[in-house]
Amino acid sequence: MPEALQFTATTVDGKPFDAKALAGKPAVLWFWAPWCPTCRGQAAETAKVAADYEGKANVVGVAGPDKNAAMRDFVADTGTGTFPHLSDEAGEVWAAVRDHRAEPLCDSRQDRRDRLRGRTARRQGSGRLASHALEVHIGDI
Fold this sequence. Notes:
CATH class: Alpha Beta
Oligomer: single chain
């Protein structure tokens, strides 16, 4: 398991989350904020990717910086409740991932025999990411 994925958190609905559960499949960490119009615009496509890759890749929303109530409202309003969302009010998950030079798209598989073995994928960007582009990134892993 890459160091970037060795963290625990709480979901926006109050459940404990251990990133070790992501082992064995590519993991997409979608960082968003309830007040962000770009994030709101990206929500439906992210939910589509999560549904299309269910069982093949993990998609986890990382919400912050805001209050948990606003995070729960965002998930309900955008229809993205089909995959877990972490409450990252203090930015601790973001810091854990950033401190390990990981990007939001991570390969958590340890048996991979290519350039990604034991490391996270290098995918960086901001703004809207269309589902087809995200699918290409997952396919690269």
